[in-house]
Amino acid sequence: MPKKLKILRVQKGLSQAQLAKDLGTTQKTVSSWETGRATPRPPMMQKIADFFGVKKDDIFFEAFNYFK
Question: Whole-model pTM?
Fold first, then answer.
């Protein structure tokens, strides 16, 4: 999840602070998601997926411990 979130953010040309503002959270929180120190709660996962226009599983696959 951390790498996928950062890749999506960078592809969209956003800083952590800009993404945090768009999602209604803090830059510190976005940083903790990207480094793997924290995982967003399910409602925020959906908000992030909607923001980037992707499915939750595409970003948070590892957070759910899914196996393909």
Answer: 0.84
